[in-house]
Amino acid sequence: MEVRATAKYVTISPLKVRRALDGLRGLPVDEAEARLRAAPGEAPRAVAKVLRSAVANAENNHELDRDALIVARAYADRAPVAKRVIPRARGRADVIQKRSSHITVVVGERTGR
Which CATH class is domain 2-109? Predict the structure, then answer.
């Protein structure tokens, strides 16, 4: 059984979030949390929050054992981009794009080894 958790409209670029997600797929949840704690930056903190939520959903809603859970899938999709204008020299203007992400983490039970 797979259980998911999603964080929407997180104000971090999807590229930065994907960098934090890349090493997590297939790992046990305890090891994935340890890697996220050791990683610098804001994106691993946001991913860790979603991972904790997915584990809590699995434990409380589906009565799964935490020790048997692995990160089955983890991905970040683009969310709407907020566009802002910043004044530049000689009356010109540049557009600043504030990117955001939808972060999804799916945990599942470890298959027998």
Answer: alpha beta
